[in-house]
Write a structure and sequence with these properties.
With 218 residues, the protein is mainly alpha-helical. The chain is 45% helix and 3% strand. It has 5 helices and 3 strands, in the order E-E-H-E-H-H-H-H. A hairpin with a 7-residue loop joins strand 1 and strand 2 (11-12). Helix 2 (76-94) runs antiparallel to helix 4 (145-161) and helix 3 packs antiparallel against helix 5 (188-215). It starts with a strand and ends with a helix.
């Protein structure tokens, strides 16, 4: 697993370090353009092998790496503009699909757009809960899936902004709603980093599946 610390959301998974670095080099510019930035020269940070005995690493619910630089993260003010921009791109891309097709799945095993937004909203809260075991689940106020997702983003930003300074360096192994690796550990930096990376992943999925959503009209 690799990521570019200076480019929130930039994350790659591959079978070995060489392939991972090649993907980073090939795809860095595209991600930077999404954020309206120039691609950084580096560095890329590569973790050791991410082990998962219950499924494929990178699938929903699988573990992700904690990098050494997560111990000194850039902070919410540096990351959150990218989170908001990626969220806006997801919403804008989804609006290319007619309202009548939002409950239609683009392919077997895929999520409908409504299901995607439910998942995204759930995960905004879930990433926060990785470093606060007692965090109450946020009420959705009967909002539509897309509106619920958007409503959870400022709650999440406030969570990170108000997180106690003395706890930012701590490592947590959450027992509530774990990934397939129940021993996966988290800290403030990893939790914050994954907010942006998860949105970037789903923006790519949505772009890939767009024809499938629209093809449901045929």
């Amino acid at each position: 697993m690799a990521h570019a610390p200076s480019l929130p959301g930039a994350c790659w998974l591959d079978l070995d370090e060489t392939a991972c670095l090649k993907r980073a080099a090939d795809e860095m510019g595209r991600h930077a353009a999404r954020l309206g930035r120039a691609p950084p020269a580096g560095p890329y940070v590569v973790a050791g092998r991410v082990l998962n005995t219950t499924g494929v690493v990178g699938e929903s619910g699988s573990p992700m790496a904690r990098f050494s630089c997560d111990a000194s993260p850039p902070g919410v003010a540096a990351v959150w503009p990218a989170v908001e921009r990626l969220a806006r791109l997801i919403v804008e891309t989804a609006r290319g699909v007619p309202a009548g097709l939002r409950a239609t799945r683009p392919r077997e095993g895929g999520r409908s757009l409504d299901e995607v937004f439910v998942h995204l909203g759930n995960c905004v809260w879930w990433y926060c809960s990785r470093i606060d075991e007692g965090l109450s689940e946020w009420p959705d106020a009967w909002l539509a899936p897309e509106d619920r997702f958007l409503a959870f983003l400022p709650l999440s930003r406030n969570f990170y902004g108000n997180y106690p300074e003395e706890r930012k360096g701590l490592v947590h192994v959450p027992a509530r709603y774990p990934t397939s690796d129940r021993a996966e550990d988290w800290n403030y930096g990893k939790s914050l980093r994954r907010q942006a990376e998860h949105l970037a992943e789903h923006l790519s999925y949505l772009e890939h599946d767009l024809d499938g959503y629209l093809g449901a009209r045929i």
